[in-house]
Amino acid sequence: MVTFKDFRNNVKPNWCPGCGDFSVQAAIQRAAANVGIQPHDLAVISGIGCSGRISGYIHSYGFHGIHGRALPIAQGLKMANKDLHVIASGGDGDGFAIGMGHTIHSIRRNVDITYVVMDNQIYGLTKGQTSPRSAEGFKTKSTPGGAIEPSVQPLELALTSGATFVAQGFSSDIKELTAIIEAGINHKGFSFINVFSPCVTYNKVNTYDWFKEHLTKLSAVEGYDSTNREEAMKVVMETEGLVTGIIYQDENAPSYQEQVPGYAPTPLVDQNLKMSEQEFNALIQDFM
Amino acid sequence: MVTFKDFRNNVKPNWCPGCGDFSVQAAIQRAAANVGIQPHDLAVISGIGCSGRISGYIHSYGFHGIHGRALPIAQGLKMANKDLHVIASGGDGDGFAIGMGHTIHSIRRNVDITYVVMDNQIYGLTKGQTSPRSAEGFKTKSTPGGAIEPSVQPLELALTSGATFVAQGFSSDIKELTAIIEAGINHKGFSFINVFSPCVTYNKVNTYDWFKEHLTKLSAVEGYDSTNREEAMKVVMETEGLVTGIIYQDENAPSYQEQVPGYAPTPLVDQNLKMSEQEFNALIQDFM
Amino acid sequence: MLQQLSWKVGGQQGEGIESTGEIFSMAMNRLGYYLYGYRHFSSRIKGGHTNNKICVRPTQVRTIPDDLDILVAFDQETIDVNYKELTEKSVVLADAKFSPVAPEDCKAPMYIVPFTEVAAELGTSLMKNMVAIGASAALLNLDKAVFQGVVDEIFGKKGQEVVEKNMQAIQQGFETMAEQLGDRLGEWEIAPADGKHRMFMIGNDAIAFGALAAGVRFMAAYPITPASEIMEYMIKKLPLFGGAVIQTEDEIAAATMAIGSNYGGVRAFTASAGPGLSLMMEAIGLSGMTEQPLVIVDTQRGGPSTGLPTKQEQSDLMQMIYGTHGEIPKVVIAPSTGEEAFYDTIQAFNIAEELQLPVIILSDLQLSLGKQTVEPFDYSKVEIRRGKLVENDEIPVAEDKSYFKRFEVTEDGISPRVLPGTEHAIHHVTGVEHDETGKPSEAATNRKAQMDKRLGKLQHINFKEPVYVNAPYEEADILFVGFNSTRGVLEELQQTFIESDIKVNHAHIRLIHPFPVEVMHSLVAKAKKVVVVENNATGQLANIIKMNVGGHDKLVSVTKYDGTPFLPLQLAKQVKELLTDGNI
Amino acid sequence: MLQQLSWKVGGQQGEGIESTGEIFSMAMNRLGYYLYGYRHFSSRIKGGHTNNKICVRPTQVRTIPDDLDILVAFDQETIDVNYKELTEKSVVLADAKFSPVAPEDCKAPMYIVPFTEVAAELGTSLMKNMVAIGASAALLNLDKAVFQGVVDEIFGKKGQEVVEKNMQAIQQGFETMAEQLGDRLGEWEIAPADGKHRMFMIGNDAIAFGALAAGVRFMAAYPITPASEIMEYMIKKLPLFGGAVIQTEDEIAAATMAIGSNYGGVRAFTASAGPGLSLMMEAIGLSGMTEQPLVIVDTQRGGPSTGLPTKQEQSDLMQMIYGTHGEIPKVVIAPSTGEEAFYDTIQAFNIAEELQLPVIILSDLQLSLGKQTVEPFDYSKVEIRRGKLVENDEIPVAEDKSYFKRFEVTEDGISPRVLPGTEHAIHHVTGVEHDETGKPSEAATNRKAQMDKRLGKLQHINFKEPVYVNAPYEEADILFVGFNSTRGVLEELQQTFIESDIKVNHAHIRLIHPFPVEVMHSLVAKAKKVVVVENNATGQLANIIKMNVGGHDKLVSVTKYDGTPFLPLQLAKQVKELLTDGNI
Ligand SMILES: Cc1ncc(C[n+]2csc(CCOP(=O)(O)OP(=O)(O)O)c2C)c(N)n1
Ligand SMILES: Cc1ncc(C[n+]2csc(CCOP(=O)(O)OP(=O)(O)O)c2C)c(N)n1
Ligand code: SF4
Ligand code: SF4
Ligand SMILES: [Mg+2]
Ligand SMILES: [Mg+2]
């Protein structure tokens, strides 16, 4: 039996003490163990940012790519080897600024991977500029007078983009977060998981306490039906996005891979690269 | 008095006969005339695609940029010269595939420009590949078995991204479209206008007739309140996006320019480039 | 009897010009002729002049000629735009429908043939192209049976009646023409071909086929001229091999997705043109830094920016070598024929895996879209080499979570490669500088070791025939140098010059980077003048030679950047002018 | 009395190391010393070793020395990482708190000083840096009054009490140290400075200040190390001038937004580093093709990919020249000092408008973040030239909607430029090839004319002093060549070598592209060996010289790519080894 300890490696994270990302890492490790994945069957693909370092802190395959492109790398990997469990992760700048296009198109595409955004409403690694998730009025190095753009609404965006799995967690609540990520891994399409992961160094507004005060837990909403998209949209709008839990899931929607015409039922990586002479000649015939 | 004829130039569009883009062009010309803009005070910034050619067919300043980047160019221009009327336009691939990130962030930013998407649910110029707006199941050169991704929902995306003006038109209904674009130009923030503009060559499904059959006009919806965002979202979801008219407008929201700290009330382009010696010395003092 | 036929059909885009050329060529191909075609078209869908110029020969041909023997015109514009290519020996066949007028200084006689009318009488004016083909057949004295196979193949699924109608159109075109020709019937007959069956394809087909044969099972791409056919081929064929194509949201996604797939162990690639390549620069750097194989096809077109998207150019050379920030090892391959396009694509995938780096297959519009005769590809020559791909059972069980040395500094400079999913080989991959296990490291000594290892890999490249050399002379007056599709025009020129007693060697660079310094050094040394011929304005290849080989004094840069390909006579004149100008 | 002091403070990131160096330097600056500082830091927010090395001299200094005179250590790691730089004449000041241990082979004596303890006693251990500064002052025999101004300025707004506490901390640091030092008090006293007031700033400040002085009123940018300070300066200052900064969603938006603003007539720019530049390649091409001015700053850092984001490198040179697909005219400027960074930035904006093209200001991490003494900028030297910007009243009324010839082929190759909003000058702009009015055109002759016009513009560049030359010898043994921040180390080396009777000339390339061929040709001709020194692995500048000037035989490429800057002694050794190896 694997345990979360199997997903620990011997690298000491270079995050600031108290950073929310520690718990996101722990939750991914626990979730992977709970699902029963072997470390070598998991690949964590991450972006650039403080958050992006996460792929180096989990004992599994890890790929720390370039800013904003974790999702296409992750999808390419999953297409190559459908037997791997692929988790993409990165910051709010990574996923909602430079990576916004990929985020929305990945959601639409529904390739079976899990995407965990470590949302601290700030650019951590570059030392405290505004992020698309920074609230209006939030003062940062790049908006000393306060941000003047309404913040991106990840859950609404995901829902309107045809997401089949939308959830949100809070890094303080490792238990709930672990359960969410577990469900995300088990979901057979693209799972979109936004996680409030406080930056203790540059975000003095959206702190642990702030979230504790403002967050609603879906598990506390009686009779909430996560299979209902309208209801999902409603709860997100009502809580102004400050809600945690599995917000929406369509368990029946086929994943991208299930729909691609001709896509092999076995991992592409296991195929013999060389085609037969017969196949080769048939291709030649097209041009004769 | 300017008339729409003042916005005609002597270039013959190279669109296919019957292409929806002709009417979008006409509507922009009429709207500009109706608003009373002088041709030299209008700048049309366009992307790459059949649609993108539009900036060359209107007698006004025109900038035909690169694929997917009409919006940042347009915003840079508007920031430089707030007295200009700036219209950005391009195709559905331009705005929702490669340009998706800019589209969402431009909406959030709310710089006072008008964005007209010529949505034909296909890639025209590159000869008929699937676009993010192609409906599921739609067969194209690149999806011979039918598209397998749910199509992007422009109106929902705009609404969830904090849009202050969201509208949709149909290129056959020049009158309504003209009125929409006129309102968009008059709107003081970012106006997002999606226009169904059929591609008669590569899209044999979403034809003029198809739209005539499927579109609902908001003007026909009794008591529709375009200042109510929830109602807007509702009507968009109910009609599955097949609705035309001004869907949502917040006339009171300040534009980006109005909120930038210190931004000059007169166009930046009119400023004297050279600072005074006094100003210069004050800057030097910071480093002494 | 002609030793070569130069045939062109022209009209408005969207009018069936393409299929006219296609059917004519297919028939000639089946007779065993060698063909080389070049299409003139515009960046618009319907309307605008388009034409298709095809050179037919009983022997190898890899260039379009300057002149025309036959011009088939479906509109007046076709005559006006193309008549300068006509000589006294040529002929114009013009559709009666548009009341054609020959310009005063048109050297060739014009025959007005009722293409549309005849077709309409047979049922649909759409068949006017078949009538025109029939008329051409009369000039060439071709048996209409020659077309039966092609017509069967194209119209067969529409039923026997359609096939027959089309054959009738050809027949009537032949007859109507024959009547007008009188004595001249068959005057344009071409010397007989060998009757062998060969492939007839565009360069993009050869590249795509090569990719498939190399074992590609995944492609991620975004449409763009003139690369899209590669994606379209893969969309058609990959499902037969269990693979998939994803049309991505942009080129950045395409390149990074291809990296992801290669990381996963599946050969994957993307194809684009200039604008797309410009967007992929960061991804290419990632591939280089993380040592993940990546193959990218760049089908060059007229630049800069959107430029001349449907025109020939070779102006991305420098970008392909130097476009990425920082320093990575990178391979740039530039095939010049359909055959090379196929085999070099396979080489590209092998090298990408062997050296664990990005490989760019450089093509140009003329090679990518020009349709040419290609010798059937040889299955036995399809070799697949995956380099140091280590399997699980070759790896000792890792102790105490220590990472696998995926980036080990080895003697030959190549680190062992493992795929995610391998039990005993967990490691980290990052675009940040890293140690042998992939952990980020800023240590100066490690940095240097990893940089040296990565950049040093290029020394181990296993590329067959990096330069195509035809150098009959130990001491040459001229060494011609080119890359990509100028191959044919230079071959032609070399022959002509040799015939006028100028000693000419020819080198066509197939491996652009790492530059084949030695071969080129000795060839340059053997020549009095080095004439570098390229379709760009700044003489990029000439500059690369200056940088790598020197020889500034004897280098002459011949450039063309007006969107049109080099033509043999025109180029000969250009070179000769430089000769008499004392430059040579 | 020292002619130069080399001082370093080190500790954990986020511990106040930066401000220790800052306060010490500011005080020295006000005494009229010349300073040059270089920070070692990592790509993480808190924790990890960081240090700040500062060279203090009564005369100009533009490099950090190899050795250290004083090392102030706030943790053991600082000693372990840096002790090799210590000589017998140096000294370590270590905080008693971490029970410091000097390595056995440490040549310098160590003084253990209770920095933290003293500070804590005064109220807060945060003031330990002031104690350390006081201790340093004792070594230098500095009057504590020297610090009063700086402390006032920094802590003034926190109230008089805080100011006094900090001054007390300095005082006590001085005294505690003085006690330990005994006789050695003031042994590290530096030769007196001239007392003149000069600026002390990082290169990024100089660039940003230059942009503001050049009339920039708009910036669009995306954060990245080591460019962010430029954006941060503009965010602070632009509101004072009515302008604005937009932090965009990515670098593509930043570059294209800047193009839009320039098109509108407002000087605008963006700044980034390698990864951002790789993403901007398509936009740069658009600027070149549409002839819209665009200025981009590239602050080079360790590549490739994410590479070594906080380390020195000069490896984007080739990309800056050749990164875009197709061929555009482009200017690349590489200032090497704070002064040049300021004036060259102004030149960049002038040239961008005069020649209507993209101009890249190349910097490197050492120049961008290294803090140095800079002569106060001269207002009278700030010249603004906008080129052929045509006003409405100079334009005849257009007839019948004919377009203005914005892309006219003129004698001097520069087309008249008008801004949108101009009544009589409506025209079209496109990245597609176009005619003189901006309408798309595929015509071959027009294409050639427009390409020739665009590329020919570079001949008209008006750039002051394209190469910094210090060439005392008509026949030199060595010509040193470099660019960007290697200026100081080469100046230093030139002097040392000249002192040992080697005839050395020095050329620092300030205008990288178009390459100053003539100047360099003659300098290369005058030298026996050309030693090109650069912080990259492939010798990019050396290659550019080979391409443009030749001289392959005498070129020696000296490279360093381990993330650390060149140091004078180390470099001298490296060069001398090459000399004795027979290479020189
Ligand atoms: C193309 C590119 N642009 C910019 C950067 C610099 N950069 C690194 S991380 C980052 C954003 C960090 O914010 P976020 O994604 O929210 O991650 P966090 O550090 O907050 O976890 C930026 C702008 C980069 N590495 N690459
Ligand atoms: C960076 C880049 N990638 C690809 C292309 C090729 N391209 C030109 S237009 C276009 C898409 C056209 O679709 P759309 O935006 O919907 O415009 P339409 O032609 O349908 O009006 C593409 C992919 C390009 N010009 N630039
Ligand atoms: S800066 Fe913020 S996000 Fe980054 S490691 Fe520190 S606390 Fe975490
Ligand atoms: S291809 Fe379609 S979108 Fe393009 S011009 Fe023709 S009809 Fe219009
Ligand atoms: Mg963040
Ligand atoms: Mg479209």
Automatic annotation (TrEMBL), chains A, B:
The keyword Oxidoreductase applies. InterPro entries: 2-oxoacid:Fd_oxidoreductase, OFOB, PFO_beta_C, THDP-binding, TPP_enzyme_TPP-bd. It comes from the Bacteria. GO terms for biological process: cellular respiration. SUPFAM superfamilies: Thiamin diphosphate-binding fold (THDP-binding). Its cofactor is thiamine diphosphate; [4Fe-4S] cluster; Mg(2+). Residues 199-263 form the Pyruvate ferredoxin oxidoreductase beta subunit C-terminal domain. GO terms for molecular function: iron-sulfur cluster binding; metal ion binding; oxidoreductase activity, acting on the aldehyde or oxo group of donors, iron-sulfur protein as acceptor; thiamine pyrophosphate binding. The keyword Nuclease does not apply. Residues 49-195 form the Thiamine pyrophosphate enzyme TPP-binding domain. PANTHER family: 2-OXOGLUTARATE OXIDOREDUCTASE SUBUNIT KORB, 2-OXOGLUTARATE OXIDOREDUCTASE SUBUNIT KORB-RELATED. This is 2-oxoacid:ferredoxin oxidoreductase subunit beta. It comes from Psychrobacillus psychrodurans. The lineage of its organism: Bacteria, Bacillati, Bacillota, Bacilli, Bacillales.
